[in-house]
Fold:
Amino acid sequence: ESSRMASGKGPDDMAGGPRSRGSAEPKETKGGAVANGHANITKGRKSLHLLRKVFHALAGVALASVYEVMLDRRTTLKVFGVMLVALGGAESFRMVFPQSVFARLSLSMTSALARTYEIHHMSGMLFFLTGVIFCIYFYPKNVAILAILYLSVGDPCASACGIRWGHHSMRFSNGKSLVGFCGGFAACFGCTLAYFWQSHGPSAQLVAVSLLGGLVGATTELLCGRVLYSDGETKGGPIDIDDNLAVPIFSGGLFWAALSLFPEVAHY
Structure:
């Protein structure tokens, strides 16, 4: 970890809500539990937090699968829209009434998955679902599915690789590492290859499209993020938006443009 970075923020672990300038995560006790009076939430942004990453991946794959094989676009938007409204309402109530039984129960039930910053901020899942709905509404189905996978699989892979091995490689100005970028690239490449393989089989075009998918997914994740320094100052990446929102939207748009160069693959 960079000596200039605060202990609550991992440079490659950007899944979750954005942090306002100068804000810090709740203090942790010696044993790791957060002294918040609500729940035993112990994981900060620099924690590997594998359970959260697995949940992040499974949730995204499940949402993508619903759209791919179960529901049409119109119905999917309705179902996911209801989910977003319900989640947004619940999170808003928790923010307005932090001492309520509902707020305490909510944090207690999600303590294994939640991060310390989410005690006083909206859950990253709210941004996650918003990004998913945006992609389904604006992008072709194959692009939307892959944009969701870039977020749900590529982002946690980049984060895990960066946290675990990022200190062995160069770092970028927003704290992300080259190792994290490579992990994200490999995951997004694999998602693209697996998705189009069923209809195209092995081909040079498929490899080219998969490489582009890996590049746009990993690059978008790299450009997101915010570093919190020990003096309370923060520095955001070129895309200074919550990555649960930015990764699917920007990677989907870039991949859609790139896919237009390969009409045989794009028609699937």
Summary: Residues 1-39 have pLDDT under 50 and may be disordered. The two ends are 43 Å apart (CA to CA). The longest helix spans residues 141-165. The first strand starts at residue 226 and ends at 228.
